[in-house]
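[Meeting: bench + compute handoff]

Bench side (C.D.) handed over the final construct sequence. Compute side (W.E.) agreed to return the predicted structure before the next meeting so the bench team could plan truncations. Sequence as handed over:
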Amino acid sequence: MIVGTRESKLAMRQTEIFIKRLQESCVGTQCEIVAIKSLGDKDLKSPLNGMSTVGAFVRELDDALLRKDIDVSVNSLKDIPTTLRQGLKIGAVLERDSPEDVILPCPLEELPEGAVIGTASVRREYLLRHMRPDLKISQLRGNIHTRLSKLDSGEYDAIVLAKAGLERMGIDRPAYILDPDIFIPAPAQGTIAIECRDDDEETKSKLLKVNDHISRLETGAERGIMKFMGAGCSSPVGINAKYQGDEIRVRAISFTYTPEPVYVDTTIPEAYIMDELLDIADYLTGKRPRLKL
């Protein structure tokens, strides 16, 4: 199996995680890794929400899949557009890691007035401004180690990162979880997904063996709501779904669609349907005054 991935250390680590699980489930499967540089990796100056290309971190990998240069691509699910290109599908969603955001080097409430925080995420920027209007938000692009080095050099007073990325890279340093009930994570944050060609039956059958049903259920709800909102990975929207027995708790927040932020904390059935996701999406975008749920 030829496995495509971005060139970053985190992307490579995520690919190693996938291959290990695949070879445990499909003994004897041989894998070859092909590293591909994405637009999001080449352009480290433009804000992510200012890039004209949808799927800035996955487009080149999708191209390689469609050309049959690779059999699968390993991505962070939050970077994959909710509408896939024709001929492609998400063959597997691995068991989700921590979805929360963390702030370094100290808790948010301990930052002095006017502190400078680095982030490339529009969602994180809006949440930070909502919680601490006194803070200064500054653009911060680059891989995890680049961001940490800029924090250590004093360019920023604090930075916000995904907890899962630090864990996967084995980075052990003080990092403080931002309460996910308030600082709601991005849809599908903390989740590795594997794309493949829809007509590749052999590969799809192998990927089913590493697919995690609960993680797919949760992220499917998150991405479904995001799709109905017409939002993308660079939208100021947080959505997090958590499986709880026979129902799923959905927490969400949206900015810019309405004069004031809109917050949701509700539950939907485990066997949710389109209408329930659309109801939440329409409420978050101000198209209906209250939830039907």
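W.E. noted at the follow-up: The chain has a mean pLDDT of 93. C.D. will use this when planning the next construct.
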